[in-house]
Specification:
Helix content: 25-40%
Number of helices: 9
CATH superfamily: ANL, N-terminal domain
Radius of gyration: 17 Å
Structural class: alpha/beta
CATH architecture: 3-Layer(aba) Sandwich
Order of helices and strands: HEEHEHEHEHEEEHEHHEHE
């Protein structure tokens, strides 16, 4: 039997092995791996309740925040495809991407609602637009339990849009296998350890912010210090406070 190396499954396996380990710090709050897994399952239940099925696209528009990670792993749990959007773009540019991938749901934070709201009438594929900060209001009552959909290595996990320097942006289809083997390479190249702490101030809608240290660190059981945006003084302070050992940044 082919092992399930999908995003949702390897995170679940990590959470089962070390539920008590610190996983994530964001703006004064921390989650263990067990707490993150429960948040992912909760998010998956809420997405399932509004009709998200295998193969559907779940788009996310917002700054770095825990809900990005919960929604990404929850999408994988449902067999759906996560689509992180560049929050620096204009409304029409974002609308093109949402239409191009035929997103079924858009999760958007408060800072970016004004940019996308004028575009919503043209986005006919959307079943719902959800507030990133208020998951409890996505559905009434507790979310239903959802079974994890097995992922094959060649199944698409994310669609990440290019900058479009030679025309319209193109949706790069990244598979579960792409992420698994990148993590394996990172663990050897960087020598990622379970006791490492990595700080992530780069935007995680970019493959660099998402994939250079963060996903490998999560698979290894390390600690993530996530910043909403990049502030040099804040980064330097948190490197000292959390004894950070790795990070990705732009030279």
């Amino acid at each position: 039997m082919t092992p399930d190396i999908g995003l949702a499954n390897w995170f679940r396996e990590r959470a089962l092995r070390t539920p008590e380990r610190r996983a994530l710090h964001f703006e004064g709050r921390e989650w263990t791996y067990g707490e993150m897994q429960r948040a992912i399952e909760d998010c998956a239940g809420r997405l399932s309740a509004i009709g998200i099925n295998p193969g559907d696209r779940v788009a996310f528009l917002g700054h770095n925040q825990p809900m990005f990670l919960f929604a990404m792993f929850a999408s994988s749990r449902l067999g759906a495809i996560f689509v992180p959007l560049n929050f620096r773009l204009t409304g029409p540019e974002l609308a093109f991407m949402i239409e191009d991938c035929a997103a079924s749901v858009l999760i958007v934070d408060a800072a970016h609602r004004a940019v996308i709201e004028p575009q919503l009438p043209r986005l006919t594929s959307l079943k719902a637009t959800l507030a990133a900060e208020d998951e409890a209001r996505w559905i009434q009552g507790p979310p239903p339990a959802t079974a994890q959909v097995p992922a094959r290595e060649d199944d698409v996990a994310l669609i990440m849009y290019t900058s479009g320097t030679t025309g319209r942006p193109k949706g790069a289809m990244l598979t579960h296998g792409n992420f698994w083997w990148n993590n394996a390479s990172s663990m050897h190249t960087i020598d990622m350890l379970a006791d490492d702490a990595t700080i992530v101030p780069a935007p995680i809608f970019h493959i660099g912010g998402l994939n250079v240290t963060m996903l490998a660190a999560l698979q290894k059981g390390a600690f993530i210090v996530l910043h909403r945006t990049f502030d040099p003084g804040h980064v330097l302070s948190d490197i000292a406070a959390h004894k950070v050992t790795t990070m990705f940044g732009v030279p």
